[in-house]
């Protein structure tokens, strides 16, 4: 059996199991309701799957931001990662609803259409009290809130505090869960929902387009808005909403422990605190069991992360967003469970190849173009100069003079600037190969893995 040995294959494998688990949860309720009722009474498989996703996001999203070191590139990457498939899925959902083979929430027609569009396109509908066009989109709202909080912390250089933040959020969830069992921003707060949605759009736009203190202020405001939305807008209550946020920050703590920037015992303590508080705020045993099992499964995969995983499983992880977002659209289209999964796998593969992958490549190209434009007008030390590199005088580095023609050809320095982790351990030939792949639009980690394997 072919195996995937890339550094993050274990995360793809996790997603490759979590997405079909969520699809199984919804499809089994459709095709085998009596059997699945007995399973669901003991453990909520759908909740288990989404909490695996939350842990994976907590682990990888801050790593992606800090690897880029650029809030503009981060938000551009997120937009081109999520929006192409989201737009395609929403269009398909509305088309199927018009044909009578997909059912949307009846509350959609009772809310102002501009608000419905704003909430669903920003993926904040769950926290703005607006129905989702596709029911599984509720998890994307918590992901967006996490992105906002992560970007805000990064802007003020506090992103390293993921473990204490996870603990604070989890501990606060217990009393707030009792005080705020439902959403404050609900179906009757259209004006508040619209203002919050517009505010989030504005802070992201300012973060991407502005510089200096204005960009920092916008990112911080965005982080505060994300936290406020989780507390005030969680339909499942502030307690469980804060536990979801805490789970993602606990995933970040695990990543920092692996990187050596956080003591492992602190990461473990943070995760255990989150799990205890998650059990305390759970409104039913199946929800608590799902959270605990998701953490245990994540810990097992983390333990095995250096081992090879089957390529087919990693591929399921690559197309997991398509599997997750599109599977509700098939529930009234296919006749039974086996056919459902066969059609879903084919649809997920096609959606990834035709929608997701081109969108991601376009996002990487836009980031690469912007980075090249910025670098073309800077000194090697990072200051902008008129005339770009052609205007550079020879610079002194470590006691010797180096001309501008010599400086850029150090492959290890180029690898460091391009964000290729571990570039100092690669040969010059491997680095050149990796940099060539990055220039064609590949992400740095895939380019590094392919360059090392090719040589």
Secondary-structure blueprint:
Layout: E1 3-4, H1 9-31, H2 33-40, H3 45-68, H4 71-99, H5 113-121, H6 138-155, H7 162-179, H8 190-209, H9 212-233, H10 238-259, H11 264-281, H12 285-303, E2 309-310, H13 311-318, H14 320-326, H15 337-375, E3 395-397, E4 400-402, H16 411-418, H17 428-439, H18 444-454
Antiparallel strand pairs: 1-2, 3-4
Helix pairs in contact: 1-2, 1-3, 1-12, 1-13, 1-14, 3-6, 3-10, 3-12, 4-8, 4-15, 6-9, 6-10, 7-10, 7-11, 8-9, 9-10, 10-11, 11-12, 14-15, 16-17, 17-18
List keywords for this structure.
455 residues; 2 domains; Acyltransferase family protein; acyltransferase; Acyltransferase_3; 4 strands; two-stranded antiparallel ribbon; transmembrane; mainly alpha; two-stranded antiparallel sheet; transferase
Task: Walk me through what this model shows.
- With 455 residues, the protein is mainly alpha-helical.
- The chain folds into 2 domains: 363 residues, no CATH class; 47 residues, no CATH class.
- The strands form 2 sheets. Strands 1-2 form a two-stranded antiparallel sheet.
- Helix 4 packs across helix 8 and helix 9 crosses helix 10.
- The longest helix is centred in the C-terminal third of the chain and has 39 residues.
């Amino acid at each position: 059996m072919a195996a995937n040995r890339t550094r993050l294959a274990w995360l793809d494998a996790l997603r490759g199991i979590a997405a079909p688990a969520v699809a199984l949860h919804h499809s089994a309720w459709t095709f085998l309701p009596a059997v699945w009722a007995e399973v669901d009474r003991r453990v909520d498989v759908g909740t288990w799957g989404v909490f695996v996703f939350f842990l994976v996001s907590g682990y990888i999203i801050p790593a992606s931001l800090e690897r880029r070191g650029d809030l503009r590139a981060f938000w551009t990457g997120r937009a081109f990662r999520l929006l192409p498939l989201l737009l395609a899925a929403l269009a398909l959902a509305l088309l199927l609803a018009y044909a009578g083979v997909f059912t949307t929430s009846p509350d959609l027609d009772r809310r102002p259409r501009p608000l419905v569009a704003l909430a669903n396109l920003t993926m904040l509908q769950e926290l703005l009290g607006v129905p989702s066009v596709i029911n599984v989109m509720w998890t994307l709202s918590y992901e967006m809130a996490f992105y906002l909080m992560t970007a805000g912390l990064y802007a003020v250089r506090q992103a390293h505090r993921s473990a204490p933040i996870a603990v604070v959020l989890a501990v606060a969830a217990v009393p707030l869960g009792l005080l705020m069992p439902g959403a404050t921003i609900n179906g009757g707060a259209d004006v508040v929902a619209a203002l919050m949605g517009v505010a989030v759009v504005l802070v992201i736009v300012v973060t991407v387009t502005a510089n200096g203190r204005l960009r920092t202020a916008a990112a911080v405001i965005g982080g505060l808005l994300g936290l406020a939305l989780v507390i005030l807008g969680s339909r499942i209550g502030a307690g469980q909403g804060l536990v979801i946020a805490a789970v993602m920050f606990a995933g970040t703590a695990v990543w920092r422990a692996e990187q050596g920037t956080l003591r492992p015992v602190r990461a473990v303590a943070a995760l255990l605190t989150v799990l205890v508080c998650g059990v305390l705020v759970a409104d039913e045993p199946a929800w608590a069991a799902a959270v605990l099992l998701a953490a245990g499964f994540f810990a097992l995969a983390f333990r095995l992360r250096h081992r090879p995983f089957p390529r087919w499983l990693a591929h399921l992880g690559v197309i997991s967003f398509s599997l997750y977002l599109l599977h509700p659209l098939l529930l009234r289209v296919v006749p039974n469970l086996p056919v459902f999964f066969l059609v879903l796998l084919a649809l997920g593969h096609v959606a990834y190849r035709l929608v997701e992958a081109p969108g991601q490549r376009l996002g990487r190209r836009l980031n690469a173009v912007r980075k090249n434009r910025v670098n073309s007008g800077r000194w090697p030390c990072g200051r902008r100069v008129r005339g770009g590199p052609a205007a550079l005088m020879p610079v002194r580095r470590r006691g010797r003079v180096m001309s501008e023609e010599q400086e850029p050809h150090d492959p290890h320095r180029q690898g460091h600037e391009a964000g290729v982790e571990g570039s100092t351990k690669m040969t010059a030939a491997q680095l050149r190969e990796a940099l060539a792949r990055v220039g064609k639009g590949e992400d740095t980690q895939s380019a590094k893995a392919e360059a090392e394997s090719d040589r």
